[in-house]
Design brief:
Strand content: under 5%
Number of helices: 1
Largest sheet: none
Distance between the termini: 15 Å
Order of helices and strands: H
Helix content: 25-40%
Number of strands: 0
Length: 20
């Protein structure tokens, strides 16, 4: 789940630029 990584701020899903 990219949502979980959004809080960490790591590049987990290239489909989610918000992760950066």
């Amino acid at each position: 789940n990219p949502i979980l990584f959004r809080g960490v701020g790591m590049v987990a899903d290239p489909d989610n630029p918000l992760v950066l």
